Amino acid sequence: MREEQESAFKKKVLDQFLSGESLFGKNGALSPMLKEFLEEALQAEMDAHLRDEDTGHSVGNKRNGKGSKRVKSNLGEVEIETPQDRHSSFEPKIVEKRQRILADNLEKQIIGMYGLGSSLRDISEYIKDMYDTEVSTQVISDITDRVVPKVKEWQNRPLEEVYCIVWLDAMHFKVREEGKVRHKALYNVLGINREGKKEVLGMYLSESEGANFWLQVLSDLQHRGVQDILIACTDNLKGFPEAIGSIFPKTEIQLCVVRQIRNSLKYVASKNQKEFAGDLKKIYKAETKDLAESALLDLEEKWGKKYPIVIRSWNDNWERLSAFFAYTPPIRKLIYTTNAVEGFHRQVRKVTKTKGAFTSDMALLKLVYLATQRIEKKWTTPLQNWSLTVQQLAIKFEGRISLDINTET
């Protein structure tokens, strides 16, 4: 008889599994197991509650029958018996009073949807459609707040001693504060470690982008263990290179050439932009720094009288714009623009683009953190041809980066 029951049970499990039916839902083959687990857990909680005489409530307290309730989770719906006590002081944790949905079971799903940019209202409606159960946006907000300690831990985690290349850039968002919408700058630092893998080193929120705040960012990186950065790629924010040099004096600065081009063309008449851009290309696409400087002289001779401010900007920043010429083409491609961090920003924007204004700083940080965690999961392999690249960097920056090369004797 028992063998027949076991056989029938296995067949039911297999049939439901193959048909795609919920094994834990109504009439699910495994639903009794979920019911048994929850009821045993509630009984254990009641036992502990009755043993606890320090609360002042349980003295003389006893069991007082059972109630029943239906609860829903991502495993399906189940009806369970809930123990009751005479003083009605029992506050279960695994299935709380008046709780009709096991929110903890849905925590991963809720946080996942939130991390993809879904609004609290959208998530609430999804749960309503899937489980026919109301979950308020406040409850969902409370669940997403469980990410906050992880955000803070991630922001303060120790970092490696040396990073080969670091890109620094800011994104801009709107955040509501005290009834007003304020513009905030989110500073992001993207690094390449000695193994050639990308890593977001940190994100920092401020009222606006400026060299003074970047100084605080760089100081924080140092405090968290960074002792050296070989190459830092930045935009041409005033005072930015000096801020880097004050914390990491040996770091080589490479200003973003693409940003310089964009800024230059803003001050060139539309009728001249195509021709001017072509002349600029001869500079940054030159094979050597000498050839690039010759092209820069040609640019000045041709356009200097018409666009003196633009030409002066190139001359004044030339040493930091041209640092990439000291490297081979693969490294040049990596460092002459901030495309790496801008690519990261584009992926973050896919998640944040639906948000008009965030309700708080932490609401913004939670979402960007979750997006970052998802993006970083794809960064599992070193950059292409990194073994050759890191050897060139080790030669260029002798004594500042060590390579783990095992030699046989």
Question: Radius of gyration, rounded?
Answer: 30 Å
Low-confidence stretches: none
Shape: elongated
Instruction: List the quaternary state of the chains.
Output: single chain
SSE sequence, one letter per element = HHEEHHHHEEEHEHEHHHHHHHHH
The main β sheet shows up as: 5 strands, mixed
Structural class: alpha/beta
Number of strands: 7
Organism: Echinicola rosea
Family: Belongs to the transposase mutator family.
Keywords: DNA recombination, DNA-binding, Transposable element, Transposition
Protein name: Mutator family transposase
Summarize the structure.
The chain is α/β, with parallel strands linked by helices. It has 17 helices and 7 strands.
